[in-house]
Hints:
Blueprint: E1 9-14, H1 22-35, E2 40-45, H2 52-55, H3 64-70, H4 74-77, E3 79-82, E4 85-88, H5 102-116, E5 121-126, H6 132-140, E6 143-148, H7 152-169, E7 174-181, H8 184-202, E8 207-213, H9 216-224, H10 228-231, H11 236-250
Parallel strand pairs: 1-5, 1-6, 2-4, 2-5, 6-7, 7-8
Antiparallel strand pairs: 3-4
Helix pairs in contact: 1-11, 7-8
This protein binds adenosine-5'-triphosphate (ATP).
Adenosine-5'-triphosphate binds at residues 15, 18-24, 46, 51, 128, 179-180, 212, 214-215, 218-219, 222, 237.
Amino acid sequence: MLDATSGPMIFSVSSGKGGVGKTSLTVNLAFALSQKGLRVLVVDGDMGLANVDVLLRLTVRKTIRDVLERGEDPLNAVVYVEPNFGVLPASSGVPEMVDLGPEEHVLLGNILKSIVRHFDYVLLDTAAGIGDSVIWFNTFATHNLVIVTSDPTSMTDAYALIKILSKDYGRKRFYLILNSVVSEREGLKTFDSMARVADRFLKIQPQYLGFVPKDKAVLKAVQEQVPFIKDAPWSKAAIAVGGLADRILKLKGE
Length: 254
Ligand SMILES: Nc1ncnc2c1ncn2[C@@H]1O[C@H](COP(=O)(O)OP(=O)(O)OP(=O)(O)O)[C@@H](O)[C@H]1O
C-alpha cells in the first residue's frame, strides 16, 4: 500500500455485485476531478473483461497485459481522454488475466507505483466479485470506495466485500456511494442499514460519500460512450457526481 499522506490518493472502486455502476461512476468521477485541473488516472482493474475503454470510446493499443507480460513501459500504455485524464486500459476476453497470482500482483504493484506519482488522483475500477485481484486492488488503494444500490443482493455483496477486507486485511475505512437510487432518502436509508450491520458485526463505521440518482442520462451516455457529466452536465446524475468529486477532494489527508 502507498502512504496516504504523501503520494497521490488512490481509490479502489468496488461493489461485490456486478452491474451496479462501478465503471460508469469511475469514469465520470475521474472526468469531474480532471475538470478541476487535477491529474487523474483511471486503471481498468477488470483485467479479463475491460470496460473503461468502451465507456470512453478509446482506441487501445497497449494494455496492462502488455506491460505485465512484455515489459512495455506503462506510461506508453496510458491513453489520454483529456490532457490531464489518463486511462491505463486492460485486456478483454483473456481468462488468465482475471485473477493474477501473487508474483504477478507484486509486479503489478511495482508497475503502478512507478506511474501513479505522475497523477494527483488514481481510480482503480475493479472487477465485480471478491476474487484475488479485487482484494489486491483494494489493499493497494489508499481509500476504498464501495458502490451499493438499494437492491438487497447489492447490499449483501457489498457487505461481504467489506467483511473480508476488514477482517482479513485490516481495512477499516470504507466510503459508500449509493447508486441508482430514486431519492437521497432511499440512499440514506440503504446506507444506514449497511452502516448499522457493519458497526454491530465488524466494529467499523463506513462513511457516506453520497448518492447518485437513477437517471436516464446515465444510460444514454453509456450507449453513446461518453461520460454523462460531459454529455448531460445538468442531469441529476452529473450534478451528484460533481458533489462526490468535491467530497473526494475534502478527503485529502484523511
Ligand atoms: N445512476 C444510474 N442511473 C441509471 N442507470 C445506471 C446508473 N448507474 C449505472 N447505470 C447503468 O447500469 C449499467 C451497468 O453500469 P456499469 O457497467 O458502470 O456497472 P459495473 O458495476 O461497472 O458493471 P461490471 O460489474 O460488469 O463491471 C449501465 O448500463 C448503466 O447505464
